Amino acid sequence: MTDDFDIDIDDFLKKYDTTVKIVSLSAASNVTGTIFDLVKIKKMIKADTLFIVDGSQLLGKKVVDVKKWDCDIMIATAHKMFALT
Fold first, then answer.
1. Residues of 6-28 as b/e, b for ≥16 C-beta within 10 angstroms?
2. What is the DSSP string of 30-76?
3. Left, alpha or beta for 77 (phi > 0: left; psi -120 to 50: alpha)?
4. I need a labelling partner for 4 at 20 to 30 A (CA). Which of 10, 23, 29, 35 fits?
């Protein structure tokens, strides 16, 4: 993370190499409320890397355009949307 609580892109690129098969990120931080630029991240990863997004912190608070994220899998926990735990 950067000092302003965003994803450290330089650190991500240092760690993202040919051995990485899955990139899994939260759409927003449940601690800071930072909404991450998933479109920017998606553009950096190779087509053979599975891109998973946890939308739990964002769903129910913002309009979510999953097509824009271009993720392979989007997950969310229902308890964040007033469902049973």
1. ebeeeeeeeeeeeeeeebebbbb
2. TTT-PBP-HHHHHHHS-TTSEEEEE-TTTBTTB---HHHHT-SEEE-
3. beta
4. 23
* Domains of the chain from N-terminus onward: 9-81 (3.40.640.10)
* Residue 57: HSE in the Cβ half-sphere, 13 Å Cα cutoff: 14
Reported as a single tens digit per residue, the pLDDT across 7-52 is 999 999 999 999 999 999 999 988 888 999 999 999 999 999 999 9
Q: Using a cut of 0.90, tell me whether the model's pTM lies above it.
A: no
Q: How far is CA 40 from CA 33, 43, 69, 83, 85, in A?
A: 18, 5, 9, 31, 32
